[in-house]
Design goal:
Blueprint (H helix, E strand, L loop, with lengths): L23 E3 L8 E3 L26 H8 L15 H4 L7 E3 L7 H11 L7 H4 L19 H6 L8 H7 L7 H4 L6 E6 L2 H14 L21 H4 L4 H4 L8 H17 L15 H4 L12 E4 L3 H12 L13 H4 L23 H10 L1 H7 L4
Parallel strand pairs: 3-4, 4-5
Antiparallel strand pairs: 1-2
């Protein structure tokens, strides 16, 4: 099979001669006037997909060891962490004694909305820091911690920051651990996800979500040598944002995805970029900044979302578990929970089956600690 790195470059979107974008009308920066943007320098020429490093001395499908040797990347240690809940630890606790650790792309926004709207105003994740999910209190429970300037800039959503990072930097800001982190003295729990599924979900979300920030990584020159002009990429108008639908192809998933993972491992892009959407899950569930020790005792498998959530809630609040219908998908089971989903411009229907062998090898290398800790098959 021809390697993605060796096949001829193809136009963006897989089309024929010329850019699929070409000259078109765009509403730039919310201005009322329509501005004709002629993208001759960047987009009117065939916009080739990234072809990677031609000099890379790796096989068509490199091994994990070859990838590590090439890029000098070593995954952080993580103790084995079997999936499930420890009912003994939950005995005598209530929902409000728990702290949900929000790992991006594992259903977190939905769970946070559920806690406030349907579970007696239980504040989890982002709802700890700001009103959400229909809450009218307008009350901030904790002052938002600011561990360091670099963390604020790279991971602006405080509820996407791993607990170990908050603990580590607490003393530097003159705050006690209790002030620094909502996880302190709480029973921590979270959902984890197969790394293949999570990576594809991150890619499709980035293209389809209705705000420019989600697309920044895939428009980065380290990932895509033919990025859109910044005026277009940053424009919030639907006309501009819909252009990314052209990138919803298996070729883009594999080429851009492989380049992104390579950039992470080479250190060209910080792993906390894009609001930690591509950060390995063990950074959240283990003390990866210290010794790799597991710190979150309850790890629920997203593959069995409803059943796992039912078991967890039933162990703490049996009467509330009746909200969960195990026979239907989560979006139907909790349709009454407001403010729980980010609006999308379009549906990008890609899946794990669209990953080629090379991209899978890079996912295995970058997320090796996730595969090892949670027992997912490579």
């Amino acid at each position: 099979m021809t390697s993605p790195r060796s096949r001829p470059a193809s136009p963006v979107g897989g089309g024929g001669g010329g850019s699929v974008f070409g000259p078109r009308l765009l509403i730039v920066g919310g201005m009322a006037a329509l501005i004709l943007v002629k993208m001759s320098a960047v987009l009117d020429t065939p916009a080739a997909l990234p072809v990677g490093h031609a000099e890379m001395p790796l096989g068509d499908v490199p091994s994990i060891e070859e990838i590590y040797a090439k890029y000098g990347f070593n995954p952080r240690p993580a103790d084995p962490a079997p999936l499930g809940i420890d009912k003994g630890r939950l005995a005598g606790l209530t929902l409000k004694d728990t702290a949900y650790v929000h790992i991006p792309k594992t259903g977190g926004t939905f769970i946070e909305a559920l806690g406030v709207a349907k579970l007696g105003k239980t504040y989890w994740g982002r709802c700890v820091y700001k009103k959400c999910a229909g809450s009218t209190e307008g009350k901030t429970i904790y002052n938002e911690p600011d561990p360091t300037a670099w963390m604020r800039n790279l991971c602006p959503s405080v509820y996407h920051r791993p607990p170990s990072v908050m603990y580590k930097h607490g003393a530097k800001n003159g705050q006690t651990v209790a002030e620094m982190s909502p996880y302190y003295a709480k029973e921590q729990w979270t959902f984890v996800r197969n790394p293949y599924d999570r990576f594809v979900s991150g890619f499709t979300y980035a293209l389809a979500a209705h705000y420019p920030g989600s697309k920044r990584l895939f428009n980065n020159p380290h990932v895509n040598p033919n990025p859109l002009p910044m005026a277009v990429a940053r424009d919030r108008s639907k006309e501009s944002q819909m252009q990314f639908k052209e990138w919803c192809t298996p070729s883009h998933l594999n080429e851009l995805g492989t380049n992104l993972l390579r950039a992470f491992m080479e250190g060209k892009i910080d792993v906390y970029s894009s609001d930690a959407h591509y950060l390995p899950q063990t950074h959240f569930t283990h003390s990866t900044l210290v010794d790799g020790r597991r710190t979150v005792p309850h790890l629920l498998d997203m593959k069995r979302f409803n059943h796992a959530l039912f078991d967890f809630i039933a162990a703490l609040a049996p009467s509330e578990a009746a909200l969960i219908d195990n026979s239907v998908e989560p979006i139907k089971a909790f349709k009454g929970a407001p403010d729980s989903f980010v609006p999308l411009n379009f549906k990008c229907r890609l899946g794990v089956a669209d990953l080629n062998a090379t991209t899978k090898a890079y996912i295995q290398a970058y997320y090796k600690s996730d595969f090892d800790a949670y027992g997912y098959d490579m």
